[in-house]
Amino acid sequence: MKVLTYNTLFGGFDGADRRRFEAQIELIRATKPDILLIQEAKNATANGSQLLFQMEQAFEMRGFIANAPHTGQNTGIFINSSVKPLSFETDSVHFHHALTILKLDVPNFEKPVTFISAHLCPFGTHVRLTEAYYLVNYAEVQNYVLLAGDFNSVSPYDPDPQGLNELPSHFRTRYVTSDGKAVDKRTLETLNQAGYMDLGHHFGQNADSTVPTATYKDSEFVPFRSDYILTTKALQERAISYKVIKNDLTDIASDHYPVIAEFH
Question: 10 Å Cβ neighbour count for 248?
């Protein structure tokens, strides 16, 4: 089972310019994930879900979208034909954007696997911490659960991002404690404490940043790991690889690098 998570930056569109979207299609076709979790699926369900249908055709996958009514930055999960959906839920009440929850019957897994695509609030550590406590409820250690997406948070396993003090204060405040003296790592600490296992840390690649990409170096980010694949212990034991995908395509396709993991 191959799983890809990707913050696509406005769905790959810059106004009417769809070059980034086409680059994302090329990447997804090349990596051939069984399950694709996306964030910022902007306009996917507008105009009768016209873009969603285009994405399904281009990816050759079936899509499930959680609408984010307050921000328009939807989350979603796409699946290939080898996996079967069992249930589909969304949550836009307790999250700044929205949460997509999809339970799947996956070949060679003896029980269902629950996938959660998340995009936590970019603006405040206290908001993300509240969101994390809602995510805690899904961390049933005996079950197969995978939580992935853009958490906009620094892990306690990772070094403090370099250059935070050079960021404008309204960007720097997103990542530090209320007194401004330390990097706030409570969101990932809470998820780890609840039983979510960090695959980047598990495979010794937790220092590999996912933002910003080469094209977006002069943005609101300093280099750090913002995108995660977390699993319950039961699913982590079946993980065989983890990688942040950095190449010519992903340098230009978004401001986030995608992350891929494989399970036996």
Answer: 9
Q: Structurally, how many domains does the chain consist of?
A: 1
Q: Which residues contact 118 (CB under 8 A, 6 or more apart)?
A: 39, 75, 95, 99, 131, 135, 147, 148, 149, 150, 151
Q: Which residues of 190-221 are buried (b: 16+ CB within 10 A; e: fewer)?
A: bbbebbbbbbbbbbeebebbbbbbeebeeeeb
pLDDT tens digits, one per residue of 115-168: 999 999 999 999 999 999 999 999 999 999 999 999 999 999 999 999 999 999
pLDDT of residue 220: 87
CATH of the domain at 90: 3.60.10.10
Q: Which domain holds residue 163?
A: 2-263
Tokens (6 digits) for 239: 């993980």
